[in-house]
Every structure is written in C-alpha cells, then in structure tokens.
Specification:
- Strand 9 and strand 10 form a beta hairpin.
- Helix 2 crosses helix 3.
- This protein is 29% helix and 33% strand.
- The protein has a 6-stranded mixed beta sheet with strand order 1-5-6-4-3-2. The chain has a 6-stranded mixed beta sheet with strand order 7-11-12-10-9-8, with no helix packed on it.
- By secondary structure, it is an alpha+beta fold.
- It has 2 domains: 149 residues, Phosphorylase Kinase, domain 1, CATH 3.30.200; 122 residues, Phosphorylase Kinase, domain 1 (2-Layer Sandwich).
C-alpha cells in the first residue's frame, strides 16, 4: 500500500506522509507559487514538516487583501483585511483547512537570502502568516498578524528609547511617560519629543529682556530621518529656543500641538526643566509657556 492510499484513511493532515502533504500544497498553492526557488522550498518545507498549523508559512495571493491602508507614514508598511483568512485547524470532512478572516500587517520585503532566514527565525515572535507579492511593484510582501506585529513594534521602539535615553531620563514620571508615548506612537520623525542633555547646547544667549528665553546651538541636532543601515537616527545641527518650563502638563500637551517642540532638557544649575523649540517657528504669543511675553 503506497503513501497516497494510506493517507486517504487518515483524517488528520498531520498524520499524512510528506509526499501527500506536498501534493496537497500543490493543490492549494501551485507547484512554484512565488517564482523564487528558495522561498518555494521554505514554504514546502514548513507545509510538510510542521506539526501544528500555527507553524505554517503560506503563499498568499495579493488579491485576497482588502481595505489596504497605510498604518504608518513609512511607505513600506500597510494594514489590510485578509479575506480568505489564516489557517485555524483541519476539517477532516472536507479534507481542507478551516480559516478565519484576519487583519494583517503587510511589510514590503526586498528579498535577499540573509534577511529572509532572519525573518524565518523570528516568525513565531511576530506571527508571520505568509508571503505575498505586489502585482504592481513586483515586491515581495511579508504578512504578519496586525496586532502582534504592532505590539512588537512598540516594544522594539521602547527598547530603542531606553538604549538612547535611559529608562527614566528626566526623573519625572509624567514627563518620562510623555516622552515614551511620543516615541512609540509617533509615525514621523517630526512628531518625536526627545530628552536632550543640557550639555548638548552651545552658544547659549539671552534673547529678550527676561531670564526665561534663550537661543542656543544644539550640537547633536534634531532627528530628521532614519538610517536603515546603521539602525539609528540621522540628525542635523539646529539653532533652538530654550524656554523655562513653567506650564502644567495639560498646557504642555496643548503646546505640543501648536509648536515645533524638539524635546525637554534640564538646567543642571537651576534644576529647571527646559522646553527645546525650533528657533524659527517659536510662537512668541504663547504666554503660558513662560508667564512673560518676549520683548523685541
């Protein structure tokens, strides 16, 4: 009795022989669905060797994605509804998979063998469902569970925050929470609010007839882009306005919406918190920032 005949009497897919599993793969996905030998071989490997449906990586037709939208400004990442849905379990009556419609994260993937295997090693952490291909750009697409992917993204952002600024940079819980919230909720470098050590400021000079507002040169500079090779921020030296922080947290949140705020610092002498704003865009009419108006 050959494998094909034996497997017909086995109701559970995972009890089948590898040859029958691969026949079922071809029936569902075709012989070479991706057009890339390495990708196809890994898809077949997981299909024939996995002991659980959660371990599969599928080839997913791009036409199965609906309601595709950007979930970040980064043009490489989208959210979508996977209309066919992920595999849940085996239907022994239909001899096929039961599926569940899922919201997924679609991430553009410029294929190279090293990155491909790195992704496979982390597939369980990020809940990788499969691989697809954009019919317009011809780019490969990694398909992740949307919720798990974004949770891990936030976790990675917080780890990067702590690596750059420490766990509690300001020593004030409310300020630290604001900094962290902006770091992992922001979808553009322009929205980030940093903790800035006071020793990064040079050429500090008074700008008006009061002791609350100064101009300075920020030597490290503001974030303006992400370096994909170094996995760190690209910065630009910037002239900034330093303002003693006298407003409430509520007023601070309002101010964030109105001003180009680069971050918060602390004067090591006076121990006052300092708002670091764009020098050119600073709105001098925001009286609540300092309690005094700027005198030209």
């Amino acid at each position: 009795m050959d494998g094909d005949t034996r497997c017909k009497f086995k109701s559970n897919f995972f009890d089948w022989c590898d040859a029958c599993k691969l026949k079922h793969f071809k029936l569902n996905y075709d012989k070479s669905p991706s057009g890339n030998n390495e990708i196809d071989n890994r898809l077949k490997y997981y299909y024939s060797k996995s002991g659980l449906s959660e371990e599969f990586i599928e080839w997913i037709s791009y036409e199965e994605f609906k309601d595709i939208t950007h979930n970040v400004v980064n043009k490489e990442t989208y959210s979508a509804l996977w209309s066919k849905g992920c595999i849940c379990d085996w239907n022994k009556d239909k001899f096929n998979w039961n599926r569940k419609i899922k919201k997924v994260a679609l991430v553009n993937f410029e294929y190279n063998i090293i990155d491909f295997y790195r992704v496979l090693k982390e597939k369980e952490q990020y809940k990788l469902y499969g691989i697809s291909k954009d019919p317009t750009s011809h780019s490969y697409i990694l398909v992740f569970d949307d919720e798990v992917y974004n949770q891990n993204l936030c976790s990675c952002k917080l780890n990067h925050f702590q690596l750059n600024y420490g766990e509690f940079p300001s020593g004030n819980d409310e300020i630290d929470n604001i900094l962290k919230d902006h770091y992992y909720d922001s979808i553009s470098p322009k929205e980030l609010i940093e903790w800035i050590p006071f020793n990064e400021f040079r050429e500090i000079v008074l700008t008006a007839d009061n002791k609350e507002i100064y101009n300075a040169l920020w030597s490290k500079g503001c974030i303006y882009d992400w370096d994909e090779d170094k996995l760190s921020w690209i910065r630009e030296v910037k002239k900034v306005t330093l303002v003693n922080f006298k407003c409430s947290i509520n007023d601070f949140n309002i101010m964030v919406l109105k001003e180009k705020l680069y971050g918060i610092s602390k004067d090591p002498t006076s121990h006052s918190y300092i708002l670091v704003l764009d020098d050119e865009g600073y709105n001098q009419n925001l009286f609540f920032l300092t309690g005094v108006r700027v005198v030209n």
